[in-house]
Every structure is written in structure tokens, then in C-alpha cells.
Amino acid sequence: MARHPIYSGILLALAGTVLAVGQWRCIFGFLLILVALGVKMGQEERLMIETFPQDYPEYRRRVKALIPGLF
Q1: Is residue 13 predicted with pLDDT exceeding 90?
Q2: Cα–Cα–Cα angle for 35, 15, 57, rounded to 5 degrees
Q3: So where are the chain's domains?
Q4: Which of 7, 10, 1, 3 is nearest to 69 (CA)?
Q5: What is the pTM of this model?
Q6: Taking Cα atoms as reference points, which of 10, 3, 12 lies closest to residue 57?
């Protein structure tokens, strides 16, 4: 289980596209989107902590952000 499964799916699809196309521009685009999603995840995490101050920190400790069991 991941806290941001849609972002995981987007990044996985983009990584596959980068590998399939194989151009440096794709790597740049992937990194740009990775940074943008990182910023968005940070904003969402802050909102969730403000909204659910009692429960969300424990959930955050149990469930990884993007890749179950890793990150």
C-alpha cells in the first residue's frame, strides 16, 4: 500500500516511456515531473497533518509514500 498510488503509477508509466524512447529529453522531462510531484506531495502531506493531527502521523509511519516497503 502507498499513500500516493496515483503518483506511483504516473512515475512508473513515465519511466517506461523514458526507457522506450531513450532520448535525453525524456530524462529531463521525467526529472522535472518528479520534482513537481515531490512538491505536490509535500503540500498534500502538510494538509493531511493539519486536518488529521492525531491519526495521520501514525498512518504516515506505517505506509510508505510511493513504493510499498521502500519509500
Answers
A1: yes
A2: 50
A3: 24-61
A4: 1
A5: 0.84
A6: 3
